[in-house]
Design a protein that fits this description.
- The structure holds 2 protein chains of 2 kinds.
- By secondary structure, chain A is an all-beta fold.
- Chain A contains no helices and 11 strands.
- Chain A is globular.
- The termini of chain A are far apart.
- By secondary structure, chain B is mainly beta.
- In chain B, strands 2, 4, 5, 6, 9, 10 and 11 form a 7-stranded mixed sheet that branches. Chain B has a 4-stranded antiparallel sheet with strand order 1-3-8-7, with no helix packed on it.
- Chain B is globular and about 35 Å long.
- The chains are: A mainly beta, B mainly beta.
């Protein structure tokens, strides 16, 4: 069972366009994290969202945590080629007593110059 | 601070051979994780250590995979014998405490099994 569903799986857009990717679950999470992974590297943490409805901004990236803490979105404004990479959401479902962190399959983003 | 160190970066072996990966976490990080990332997928947790004890190894194929963290610092992950489906990137990560949900990853060890 894939607890974190990410969509779309792949996205290729032109530089300067806006985009939104999603991370959905039927489980409640105490927090969710977004990571970006570039080829040949490990994932790097971008942000953690903790409170339902929370919005965090990181330059042109806007992260939102759903009110029910079951989903999250990442919006990129005026995408640039440097945004290319695999975007992963992750978290520990509250039903996991062992705090096991699970990852979604990711959204592979390609920004065309 | 120094990051999570992993070696080797790349390894090519034939099926039924053995391989070992090494990880040195960030100094002071009590929790260490090994993840398997198959091409096109997100990381899947294989094993989680808290100091030198195992917290979770429910998804570790114990008939062929083993891992240890004897002194609560660095760790090794071994596969013996390897299968074709073990071809993946093996990522090591660490965090200050279990449940911190903020992981620092190494660059990974890419395994190709022929």
């Amino acid at each position: 069972t894939q607890l974190l569903e990410q969509s779309p799986q792949f996205l290729s857009i032109q530089e300067g366009e806006n985009l939104t990717v999603y991370c959905n679950s039927s489980s409640v999470f105490s927090s969710l994290q977004w990571y970006r992974q570039e080829p040949g590297e490990g994932p790097v943490l971008l942000v953690t969202v903790v409170t339902g409805g929370e919005v965090k901004k990181l330059k042109r990236l806007t992260f939102q945590f759903g009110d029910a803490r079951k989903d999250s979105s990442l919006h990129i404004t005026a995408a640039q080629p440097g945004d290319t990479g695999l975007y992963l959401c992750a978290g520990a479902p509250r039903m996991n007593r062992d705090d096991k962190i699970i990852f979604g399959k990711g959204t592979r983003l390609h920004i065309l110059p | 601070e120094a990051g999570v160190a992993q070696s080797p970066r790349y390894k090519i072996i034939e099926k039924r051979q053995s391989v070992a990966f090494w990880c040195n976490p960030i100094s002071g990080h009590a929790t260490l994780y090994w993840y398997q990332q198959i091409l096109g997928q997100g990381p899947k947790l294989l094993i989680q250590f808290q100091n030198n004890g195992v917290v979770d190894d429910s998804q570790l194929p114990k008939d062929r995979f083993s891992a240890e963290r004897l002194k609560g610092v660095d760790s090794t992950l071994k596969i013996q014998p390897a299968k074709l489906e073990d071809s993946a990137v093996y990522l090591c990560a660490s965090s200050r405490v279990s449940g911190a949900n903020v992981l620092t990853f190494g660059a990974g060890s890419r395994l190709t099994v022929l």
